[in-house]
Amino acid sequence: MDLYIVTLTILGVVVLLTAWLPLMMRRLPLSLPIACMAIGAVLAWSPFPLLPRFNPLENREFTERMTEIVVIVALMGAGLKLDRPIGWKRWMTTWRLLGVAMPLTIGALAFLGSWILGLGVASAVLLGACLAPTDPVLASDVQVGPPQTGEEDEVRFALTSEAGLNDGLSFPFVHLAIALALAAKEGTLLLQHWAFLDVFWRLAAGGVVGWALGKAFGFLSFRMRGSSLAKTQDGFVALGMTFTTYGLTQLVGGYGFVAVFLAAVAFRASERHHDFHEQLHDFAEQIERLLMMVLLVCLGSIAASGQLLEGIDWRVAVVAFLAIVFVRPIIGWLSLIGSGHPPGESLIIAVFGIRGLGSIYYLAYATGQAEFERVETVWTTVLLIVLTSIVVHGIAVTPAMRWIDGRRSRARRKQTAHAVH
Length: 421
Prior knowledge:
Elements: H1 3-24, H2 32-45, H3 60-81, H4 92-115, H5 121-131, H6 154-169, H7 171-186, H8 189-223, H9 237-251, H10 256-270, H11 276-305, H12 314-335, H13 343-351, H14 357-369, H15 375-420
Helix pairs in contact: 1-11, 2-11, 3-6, 3-9, 3-10, 3-11, 3-14, 4-5, 4-6, 4-12, 5-7, 5-14, 5-15, 6-10, 6-13, 7-8, 7-14, 8-9, 8-10, 9-10, 12-13, 12-15, 14-15
């Protein structure tokens, strides 16, 4: 059997399912990522050689590049869909999640990695840094709606803006783990190098370049007379902005993830109510969904074949359980105390810190920069948490969002009734 033709056929089916499955699953307590992984599992158990199985440990660079592309496309889509202008008070929930919840989560996960898994300092920090960011790719069900649709309540806004920024802001901690791994061989001067380059310069460069390019793209799209980009009505301009921003930022040594999201936010700020935003968002979302489905079908196939999860023992299972059930929910909820949100909304924001392809990218990237002890254990733990998060959060998201929407709808009806009387 021609493996190429069979794989091409499967790819065609996956592309068709990209459009069809979201409609079929709208009323079900399941998510598209769960369906993708199930398809991959079926293919793995099939007697036919349907898919090449890309083990991340054996194909690290392929894993890094594929997850990198889907994450930056998702970051552009997340930034484009936010209607709320950036600001200290308007984004206070986001700043709490980034400034309080994320560092504490990294510390807690690193502690669990050291205490339960017996990891060294560098590997433990790497585990925490990879699992700290929420995922912009798999969190579409808890994010705001397309631009100018009005689907931007506080819960959805918090989870969208957090996912957009913390995928870049966790990068310094990934580089800290790399510096610790290298320092064991090359000396402690690497830590000073990390503080200046990986924290100060890369964050500053990512923020400045991203915002400047977003404003420049806004000028080319809405202010340029006669030949503006908006007049093209081409959605693939979103991909051009994504890759240009990411590439230029990386070339000057900045964090491309931060830059891409801020470029999208700055682009929205240039002309907030133009219809072109919706076209760009829709195209970026379609590309993101297609890439996500292909990767998750491969991940489901690998998981079902047992290549990735054969190293699971009780310690890995305990860390995965604690990470999903206790660490993020408790720390996230504590970070929102005093924010003014109803307890139910704060709980949902805290619980739905979905882990996904961003975690896999960070781990693939870091293991290409330095050697980490017991890296197979780190891979197994991260992948188990990602798979568990996809299933648990995917099942819980529909009833949780319905509860939030119903609660808000009832509150509006009460306000209307009081106004009438």
